[in-house]
Amino acid sequence: MFRSTPKPGFAVANFTTLISRGTEVVGDVRFKGALEIEGKVFGNLYADDAQAQVRVCESGLVRGEIHVPRVVINGAVEGNVHSSNHVELAAKARVSGDVFYRLVEVVMGAELNGAMHHVPAEEALQKQLPGQVAAAEREGAILD
């Protein structure tokens, strides 16, 4: 009835946030761990840790930019996607915007209306995601 083990490829720290179907969030979202979107987000998504992941489910919509290490899209995104690690565009993905990635997977049926920009591994490691920079500043860390 209930799955006790996490779905392969989507296991992160103990933090999982769900924006369920029928829920609308207006404004930027900063998070740690995993974020699953079945509802609508009108704002930007920022990861506050290097292991963070976003999953935009089939019924999900993000109208804004996404800045995360790993993202799986099977719903709609209207805005640019910035990933320092891995982007997966699943069969029902609909992206209107540019995708910046280090590794990419595109499944047959995915729609992309924008450009794809490869970010080399060295550059991805050197760049800090905006949410990670903000988290480090809050914690008093010094960034290069």
Features:
single chain, 144 residues, mainly beta, 10-stranded parallel sheet, 6-stranded parallel sheet, globular, disordered N terminus, disordered C terminus
- Helix proportion range: 10-25%
Oligomer: single chain
Sketch the topology as an H/E string, one letter per element.
EEEEEEEEEEEEEEEEHH
Low-confidence stretches are 1-7, 139-144
Cα gyration radius (Å): 15 Å
DSSP helical segment count:
2
Largest sheet: 10 strands, parallel
Beta-strand segment tally: 16
Outline:
With 144 residues, the chain is mainly beta. It is built from 2 helices and 16 strands. The protein has one domain (16-138).
Question: What does this 3D model show about the protein?
Answer:
- This protein has 144 residues and is mainly beta.
- It has one domain (16-138).
- Helices cover 10% and strands 44% of the residues.
- Strands 1, 3, 4, 6, 7, 9, 11, 13, 14 and 16 form a ten-stranded parallel β-sheet that branches.
- The longest helix has 9 residues, at 130-138.
- The protein is globular.
- The model is unreliable at 1-7 and 139-144 (pLDDT under 50).
Would you spell out the secondary-structure blueprint of this structure?
Elements: E1 16-19, E2 24-26, E3 29-31, E4 34-37, E5 40-42, E6 45-47, E7 53-56, E8 61-63, E9 66-73, E10 76-78, E11 81-89, E12 94-96, E13 99-101, E14 103-106, E15 111-113, E16 116-118, H1 121-126, H2 130-138
Parallel strand pairs: 1-4, 2-5, 3-6, 4-7, 5-8, 6-9, 7-9, 8-10, 9-11, 10-12, 11-13, 11-14, 12-15, 13-16
